[in-house]
Amino acid sequence: MEKKKIVLSVALAVMNEEQNLKACLLSVGDLADEIVVVDGGSTDKTVDVARERHAKVIITDNPPIFHINKQKALDACRGEWILQLDADEIITEELKNEIVSVLGLRSSSMIHELRTKNQEPINGYYIPRRNYFLGKWLRKGGQYPDYVIRLVRKGYASFPCKSVHEQIYIDGKLGYLTNPLFHYSYRTVEEYWKKADTYTTLTAQELIERKIKPGFSIKLLYSIFKPLKTFILLYFRHKGCMDGINGFKFALFSSLHHPIAYKKFQTVYTLKNLSV
Q1: How far is the C-alpha of 98 from the C-alpha of 103, rounded, in Å?
Q2: What single-letter DSSP state applies at residue 225?
Q3: Terminus-to-terminus CA distance in the chain, angstroms?
Q4: What CA–CA distance (Å, rounded) separates 193 from 190?
Q5: CA angle at 159 for the pair 157 and 164, rounded to the nearest 5°
Q6: Is the predicted pLDDT of residue 270 greater than 50, yes or no?
Q7: Are 90 and 20 in contact (CB under 8 A)?
Q8: H or E, element range at 243
């Protein structure tokens, strides 16, 4: 019996995502030919949820740069196309239908035909993302449309795995989808600061690796100028003020990333030099 061709794989890297993962996987259940979940050693029921949805589960460690596990998920996929998601993201019916249409138009035979005509095929697509903060959709503050590369052709996509904020790299031409992906991150203030703790630690580590030394000018930059610039950009220039109290909180919390990261950097630098 001939095996069914795997056209679309869904790839996720997760860590303690029991509360989010089920809804994410349900949203792609009738779209994906296979689901690959790389788990970073979850201590909740994340792996059970993934296996209930018949996902291929790969259990590994939880590196500080989480894109390392995202790359492992991409590598394990067998589909011609890969939809890379986070556990707190949902695919809508409108986006699902658009992806089906795109994949139908971009089949292997169509790609071969384009190449014979010396036309460059599309190897990845940007998808607009709706970011929800404390339960509300942030329409402003630079948060929509938040274009992210998520639909990619197998073998043409990779993560540099150098920074937590990096985009996936695509070898070739990029296109744009029109229907948004829903992103339900930061459902509570506690969840925001839990994730922010990871991001500020990584920023502090980057300062150490760049051999930056604490001093008045660098302290002023991270304690005053960077926070002020971030707040003004998000709240005023990008009109986050139009999102009400949530727009204010998002701009404020985002601005606090810099002084918190600097404080961690200063502490690590001091301890490192005391131990020498």
Answers
A1: 9
A2: I
A3: 66
A4: 5
A5: 150
A6: yes
A7: no
A8: none
